[in-house]
Amino acid sequence: MGSALDDLLRARLAAVGLDPSSFGDPGEAWSALHERFGRRITLVDRYALEAETLGIAPEDLPLELRDTLGHELLAVQFPGFVFAGDSGRSVRDPIEVVPYDPGWPVAFEDWRTRLDVALAPSAVRIEHVGSTAVPGLAAKPVIDVQVSVTDLEDEPAYVPAIEGIGIRLRSCEPVRRYFRPSGDLPRVVQVHVCATRSAWERDHLLFRDYLRTHPEASGDYAALKTRLAERYSDDRLAYTDGKTGMILDLLERAEEWATEVGWAR
Question: Which of 45, 113, 183, 254 is most buried, by the most CB atoms less than 10 A from its CB?
Answer without folding.
Answer: 45
